[in-house]
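Our preliminary data section would be incomplete without showing what the modeling component actually yields. Below, a chain of 360 amino acids is followed by its predicted structure, encoded as tokens that our downstream tools consume directly.
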Amino acid sequence: MTILAPTAPATDDALGTTAARTRSAVLERQIRENPGRFRVLTGDRPTGRLHLGHYFGTLHNRVRLQDLGVELCVIIADYQVLTDRDVADNLTEHVEELVLDHLAIGVDPERSTVFTHSAVPALNQLLLPFLSLVSVAELNRNPTVKDEIAHSRQSAVSGLMFTYPVHQAADILFCKANLVPVGQDQLPHLEITRTVARRFNDRYGAVFPEPDALLSDAPLLLGTDGTKMSKSRGNAIALAATADETARLVKGAKTDSERHISYDPAGRPEVSSLLLLAALCQDRTPEEVAADIGSAGAAALKRTVTESVNEYLAPIRSRRAEYARDRAYLRRVLREGNERARSIADATLAEVRTAMNSHY
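Predicted structure:
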């Protein structure tokens, strides 16, 4: 998942990443020793079905943490759909699709909390005091905001886009999450949450933890067109895709003219991404998969990828189809998750109001 720090020099950034990796190794040991001390907040915007990039990048790690005994909170960030678009199209459908995807991969609503932004008023109310803790200049310097604005679908930058890192701080802190799985590029993003927590505690008294980043080495999977895998680009294999849809997408994937298949991410990114995908599904290394294919060419590579993906996704697709037949159950999962999240948020907001002398 995805806040307040000025853009740091490259050397500081490198040092920060090294420190985060060292800290993450310590956290992994602590999780194994005492998983019950951790609460994770993570989530997604409901803008379409989740795909294999999401799965190998973060989704399977959510299930891993849940199964280790970590308390998992999954936010479906419906309000944040509006950060980079004028309207939230097909929102109900997209929210249900996200619930389906999470249930299919193994998120257990009895052990984890799945909820939506819009159903938790107290969470969103935290945005107001949190905004008072950051400056406009700090938001302007935030590299994540700059990147999101550059890729925005809107002709003008909305107030929600500008302030959404603070909104995400509210997402994390409302439930006092102390662990947030992130990729390296999101480290500055999480820092704003730590800054908001620290400034609130300094100003009003200790209420919030400063959450740690659990840095992942998420594999980078390219889309079938050789660019970043994305819902909106039509270049991703959705978890919900059928076997035939998967075969069609892989068949059209970009490769290169060299017949011998080798794993070379820098020199042959498209071929290497396909090898990595097959390897992840087979629980092998990309080099091993490449050695098996050898000089059989791109057609053999694509056949291997198609078979590997379809075999890997078969049980996930089966569970997804089963859950999809009971829409009432999906609504119950959300209703109960929203109720749990509201209870947590109401208690946190009461603490905040007491700390701020506004409990009357």
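The first strand starts at residue 39 and ends at 44. The radius of gyration is 21 Å. Preliminary results of this kind motivate Aim 1 of the renewal.
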